[in-house]
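Problem: given the chain below (296 residues), write out its structure.
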Amino acid sequence: MTDLQLEKRGAVWLGQFRAMASPCEVHIELGSRKRAVQLVELARQEALRVEQVFSRYRRDNLVHVINTSDGTPVRVDEEMARMIDFADLSYELSDGLFDITSGVLRKAWTFDGSDRIPSVETVGSLLAHVGWPRISWNYPDITLPAGMQIDFGGIAKEYAVDRVVAILREQCKAPFMVNFGGDLHAAEAPVSTGAWMVGIEAVDPQSSAVKTLQLQRGALCTSGDARRFLLKDGMRYAHVLNPLTGWPVVDAPSSITVAGETCTEAGILSTLGMLQGKNAEQFLDEQGVTYWCQRS
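Solution.
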C-alpha cells in the first residue's frame, strides 16, 4: 500500500502523494483510471528516488557519505556531478549568495514562527563551516573539510519536478501538470479547459491567491516566507539566509514567483531574486524573466 490518492475532477485525474516533505500532485487529462494510477505511481517513485539520492536527512545515500567524509575525497556518480556543477554555477552567478554549504546554518536557525533568534556567537561559529570555495570539486571527486556539509535542499525539489515531467512525457501524450509543493511544470494545456488554472499564494496563508494565472506549458516556482519565519519585537526574520553573514537577507520580498521553461530554471531564479533583497526586482528585470514579486 502507498499513500497515493486519486480522484477525478472534470476531465482531469488528480493524483496526490507526499515526498520531500511536501504535498505532491500530478494532474493528468485522460479517460482511463488504471492508466492514471500507473502514471502517478511512476511520478511518485521518481520523486522518492530523487529524495533518497539528494536528501541531507538520510544516512543511506551519497550525500551522507560526502557530509561525513572529514576531508577524505568522495567519488560521485554522473547525476550527483551534474547537481554539483549546477550548484557551482549558481554560486558564481549569485556572487556567492547561493551556497550549498550554508545548510549547516540550520543548526542555529529554526523558522517555526517563534521568537527564538540565535546569538551572534552561535551564528559566527557556524560560518567557519560555510563557503563553497573551501570545497575541492574535481570531477568525479569532491572533498569537504571536516565540519562542512553540502545541502541540495534549494534545488532538489525543482529537479524532481523536471525529472517527473521528462518521464511522463516518454510514457504518454496526454496533457499533464506536475506540482510539488507549489513548484510546478505543465507539459501541455488540457484540452477541456485550454489552460491549467494556477494561483499565486498570498503572503498571508489565510488569504486567497493574489493572482490566478492560466498556464498552458512551462514552469512556475515560488520562493517566500509565508510559512517559514521568526518574529521578535515586531521584526520578521525570513528563512532565506545570506551565507556570507549567516543572517536572514535584509529587505527581501515576501515572495517571488518566476516563470521559466523548467522548474530548475525558474526555481533558481526565484531563489536568487530573494537573495538580492532590496534589489530583487532589478535583478529579475536584468534576467529578462516573467515574475511576480510580493512585498509586505
